[in-house]
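Ticket #4471: structure output looks truncated?

Reporter: J.K.
Steps to reproduce: submitted the chain below (307 residues) through the standard prediction queue, then opened the result file.
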Amino acid sequence: MTDASATPPRVPAAAVAPRLIATDLDGTLLHDDKTVSDRTIAALAAAERAGIEVFFVTGRPARWMGVVSDHVHGHGLAICANGAAVVDLHRGGRIVEVSPLDRTVALDVVEALRSAVPDTSFAVERTSGIHYEPQYPPLLLDPAAVVAPAEKLLAEDFVPPLGPTGDDDPAFPDQPVIKLLAHHPDLEPDAFLALAREAAGDLASFTRSSPTALLEISGLGVSKAGTLAHCCAERGISPEEVVAFGDMPNDIEMLTWAGTSYAMANAHPEVLAVTTGRTASNNDDGVAVVIEEILQRYGGERDDRQR
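Returned output as attached by the reporter:
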């Protein structure tokens, strides 16, 4: 893999000045310790002052957005759960739009993967929180989660507990499923993804962002790219006016949709293969490096305090 942090980024020429920056979080904007550097904070603020909107586009659920909630300006929106949820960070991370995974389809996916890939365990992400099987690894799970077989968690009569605020969200009283997660203890991650897509790719959208064999399963056709395209269309922003950043397979559709795209130096090989540019690693503030170059090129404000 080429070490993009060794040289300055190449900012591809664009036909028009960028109007929106779309960035993944983990492995992209955030350092490995899950913090946002002062340099990145300054670059995001400078972009907003220059009239460039910033969208965080992540596989994270809404309740894990506190790490960046103070750094979104203007619109206040973020795209979460790989496009399945639009979240208002100005309103405490409240979900305002959902593209759910149908419960019965999720059950069909569970059945197909259990048959094709034995030893797979599952978690069910709803608008109110996550619930999981006993065999599922404890990866930052909610203490109030229900632990039960996936078939029970997806049953028609299953009543999820209240969300972290202790009350029902009036917008989504039925607490729809926004993502199904599947984990395998032994398989190589890309091999697991390929097997799952072969077994049930006609039922739902499969991707991954974890270094482990952990798959993220959304409704068929739901992706970061689709929801970002919808948000851009509402603002009259074309793909050519979007600059996107990412590092893992769940970013690929967004990166290929955007007019200009960057893979981080630490990116998955498939991401490196589809982007129009490369930048430094997440730990070397690769997103900030490119934003600074964009603002310099297109005459926007540039905050040199961290230089």
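Triage note (M.O.): checked the attachment and the full token line is present. The first helix runs from residue 25 to 29.
Status: closed, working as intended.
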